[in-house]
């Protein structure tokens, strides 16, 4: 085998093994808005593209995307934020007509293993309210620092007495 071809094959295999993987998909109510959290594990520094869609009446509707064009009925109500290993969809003025199967699709640039897709069924009456600390928990170093500093804060109170 040609050494150049061999190296190219090895690099392609290594690149394919270093893709993103959706770990969890959750939905909750934040006031009158729906929030869909797409948690993923990213093993590459390549740019990430995403698509949030809903399937209802056996038809897929794109809500917000960097992969394809979003539908007009969602464009003005949808917003997406990206944090470390988390892509969040916010859909304002969420009603029962927005119920359906929501999909998060992720793809890293130059990832040849294909898109990662996860679905969740969203029914308004069954949604929980979003937890206030969910973003803090995503970054466990802040939580760990807070827990480790509690004994120090108690010691300062004791000394000041």
From TrEMBL:
Biological processes annotated in GO:
cell adhesion; integrin-mediated signaling pathway; positive regulation of focal adhesion assembly; regulation of cell migration
Point out the signal peptide segment.
Answer: 1-19
GO CC, alphabetical: dendrite; external side of plasma membrane; focal adhesion; membrane raft; myelin sheath
Asked whether the UniProt record includes Disulfide bond among its keywords, one would answer yes
Subcellular location, record wording: Cell membrane
Q: What are the GO MF terms of this UniProt record?
A: GTPase activator activity; integrin binding
- Enumerate the InterPro entries for this protein: Ig-like_dom_sf, Ig-like_fold, Ig_V-set, THY1
Q: Which residues form the Immunoglobulin V-set domain?
A: 33-106
Q: Has the keyword Cell cycle been applied to this entry?
A: no
What is its membrane topology? Lipid-anchor; GPI-anchor
The family database entries (Pfam families) matched by this protein are listed as: V-set
Q: List the keywords (alphabetical).
A: Cell membrane, Disulfide bond, Glycoprotein, GPI-anchor, Immunoglobulin domain, Lipoprotein, Membrane, Pyrrolidone carboxylic acid, Signal
What is the documented function of this protein?
May play a role in cell-cell or cell-ligand interactions during synaptogenesis and other events in the brain.
What protein is this chain from?
Thy-1 membrane glycoprotein
Q: Give the classification, highest ranks.
A: Eukaryota, Metazoa, Chordata, Craniata, Vertebrata
Q: Which gene encodes it?
A: Thy1
């Amino acid at each position: 085998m040609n050494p150049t071809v061999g190296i190219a094959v090895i690099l392609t295999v290594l690149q394919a093994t270093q893709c993103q993987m959706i770990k969890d998909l959750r939905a909750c109510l934040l006031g009158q808005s729906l929030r869909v959290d797409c948690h993923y594990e990213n093993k590459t520094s390549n740019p990430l593209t995403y698509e949030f869609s809903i399937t209802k009446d056996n038809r897929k509707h794109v809500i917000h995307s960097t992969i394809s064009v979003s539908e007009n009925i969602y464009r003005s109500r949808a917003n997406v934020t990206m944090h470390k290993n988390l892509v969040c969809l916010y859909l304002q003025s969420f009603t029962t007509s927005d119920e359906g199967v929501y999909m998060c699709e992720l793809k890293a640039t130059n990832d040849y293993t294909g898109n990662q897709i996860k679905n969740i069924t969203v029914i308004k009456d069954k949604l929980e309210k979003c937890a206030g600390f969910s973003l803090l928990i995503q970054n466990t170093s802040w939580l760990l620092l807070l827990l480790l500093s509690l004994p120090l804060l108690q010691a300062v109170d004791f000394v000041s007495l």
